[in-house]
Write a structure and sequence with these properties.
The protein is α+β, with helices and mostly antiparallel strands and 515 residues long. The strands form 7 sheets. Strands 3-9-10-16-13-12-11 form a 7-stranded mixed β-sheet. A 5-stranded mixed β-sheet has the order 20-19-21-22-23, with helices on both faces. The longest helix is centred in the N-terminal third of the chain and has 27 residues. It starts with a helix and ends with a helix.
């Protein structure tokens, strides 16, 4: 785990050094848990968004997109339950004066218990080698059974307290399990209190009286209040979906782990409207479709798992997370929820407007049920970066840092490098860039030795380097170097477009999703 944490620290500094992510307002000493995406980061982020957007609206005839406003009528948040129920259970340590989420403190303890079990299994696997039967070991080893029993006892108690909204019991668990403050090391805790996560602001001048409004904590409600507009103007028939990418804001107290949990973040959400009674069938279908979308990137199938919710939100009848193995453990990247007709029914009640769909096949009107897929752009960015970041030792003892980014997502698709800065090579290199720039993000680099230039491109994840040498002037061929293998091939300049186009096209990813 410690080794993974070191890798994570290196990744964070790599993001800053190479223009992917900067701390926000850094010249003013920054703003906690807020980050800016740099020139490389914004390209990667845009490519992730394009991959998601096109996988929704390009691959599905019955999914369309919208872009709703961040400011919305305040009653919307009353109807959605956010004003009354969008809370985190917080606890303060009286000695360090630090505030924590009670549920996160307990989840961290559960993670430590999981680590103990995994260490026992790893130790045994080393000891017994190929003859090791992991399933049997987990079922029979006394130490593993003891740790598992302790974990289950805590987990059952914790899940019940969360489901019941029992704040006293959450505090009691922290006391009983002697959970200490990570800063002060003491157990001097306050009571647990609920804290609403929405940012509020005022709209209108004080002269004519201002209205309290909220920065949206999710993009979903903008879709719900527009669902009938879209259905009618687009003549959509159920089932159909509405997709949206946009900023959301949550006043997270425990904002941490770089861009994993921030106060200002971006979501990619799709709400899929279905007939009542068919929602669980569609829930299963979207679970599989979304997992395929992730796996198509080739970051490693074993890095993903489903985590079904024990505590369902007040509006859901099924919910699961797609978790990705980050350097700090498996964490949620995407949520898939069967939201029933909760949102639309409540908006109907609070607005007094009919939000029913007339089903011509059944010849009746009803409020549709909804399957939601909701993914954090920033978390997706972090999972791609952490899977791609590699430190490699090469032949001859040299080393390199390389970002093995999926070629379709890489910020720069190719770099063109003249071998020397004279003899017409820079001009030839510029010519090549001019012929490719309309389709691919290109970079020109003539500074330093060719080896150093390769390293720079490896560090930002550029899949192809094109070297222009004296032979290029004679026969219109260049050397193409492949990032992952470092192999080099001599190819005709005329073939570059096809070679690169095939590798970096999102088409190859889309084909894997619809297989």
């Amino acid at each position: 785990m410690a080794q993974q944490e070191d890798v994570f620290k290196k990744l964070v500094s790599h993001c800053k050094e190479y223009g992917f992510v900067f701390p926000s307002s850094e010249i003013y000493d920054g703003l906690a848990a807020v980050y800016d995406y740099g020139q490389m980061g914004v390209e990667l982020k845009n490519n992730i968004k394009k991959y998601w957007w096109d996988s929704m609206v390009l691959l599905h005839e019955n999914i369309v997109g919208i872009d709703s406003a961040i400011f919305m009528h305040p009653t919307i948040w009353k109807a959605s339950g956010h004003v009354d129920a969008f809370n985190d259970p917080l606890i303060d340590n009286k000695d360090s004066k630090k505030r924590y989420r009670a549920d996160v403190l307990i989840e961290d303890l559960l993670a430590k218990m999981d680590d103990k079990i995994e260490k026992e299994v790893e130790k045994a696997a080393k000891k017994f080698g190929e003859s090791f039967d992991e399933k049997m070991f987990r079922k029979t080893n006394p130490r593993v059974l003891e740790h598992t029993a302790k974990r289950e006892t805590l987990h059952t108690r914790f899940a019940k307290a969360m489901n019941d909204g029992n704040l006293e019991e959450l505090r009691q668990i922290i006391i009983d399990y002697e959970i200490v403050c990570p800063i002060s090391g003491t157990k001097n805790w306050t009571e647990v209190r609920q804290f609403n996560l929405m940012f509020s602001t005022e709209m209108g001048s004080t002269a004519d009286g201002s209205t309290k409004i909220y920065l949206r904590p999710e993009t979903a409600q903008g879709i719900f209040v527009n669902y009938l507009n879209v259905q009618k103007t687009g003549r959509m028939r159920l089932p159909f979906g509405i997709a949206q990418i946009g900023k959301a804001f949550r006043n997270e107290i425990v904002a941490r782990q770089f861009v994993f949990r921030m106060r200002e973040f971006e979501q990619m959400e799709m709400q899929f409207f279905v007939r009542p009674g068919e929602e669980l069938k569609w829930f299963e279908k979207w679970k599989q479709t979304r997992l395929k979308w992730h796996k198509a990137l080739g970051l490693g199938d074993k890095k993903y798992r489903f985590h079904d919710h024990e505590k369902l939100a007040h509006y859901a009848n099924a919910a699961t997370d797609i978790e990705f193995e980050m350097p700090f453990g498996f964490k949620e990247v995407e949520g898939i929820h069967s939201r029933t007709n909760f949102d639309l029914s409540n908006h109907e009640k609070y607005s007094g407007k009919k939000l029913q769909y007339f089903d011509p096949e059944l010849n009746e009107s009803y409020v549709p049920y909804v399957i939601e897929t909701s993914i954090g752009v920033d978390r997706m960015f972090l999972s791609v970066m952490s899977a791609a970041y590699k430190e490699e030792t090469l032949e001859g003892g040299e080393s390199r840092v390389v970002l093995r980014l999926p070629a379709a997502l890489a910020p720069i698709k190719l770099a063109v490098l003249p071998l020397v800065k004279k003899d017409g090579l820079p001009e030839k290199a510029r010519e090549i860039i001019d012929s490719l720039r309309f389709d691919f993000r290109c970079q020109y680099d003539e500074k330093d030795s060719i080896g150093k230039r390769y390293r720079r491109q490896d560090a930002i994840g550029t899949p192809f380097c094109i070297t222009v040498d004296h032979q290029s002037l004679e026969d219109n061929t260049v050397t193409i170097r492949f990032r992952d293998t470092m192999k080099q091939e001599r190819v005709a300049i005329a073939d570059l477009h096809n070679i690169i186009g095939e590798q970096v096209s999102m088409k190859t990813l889309f084909k894997k999703i619809i297989e």
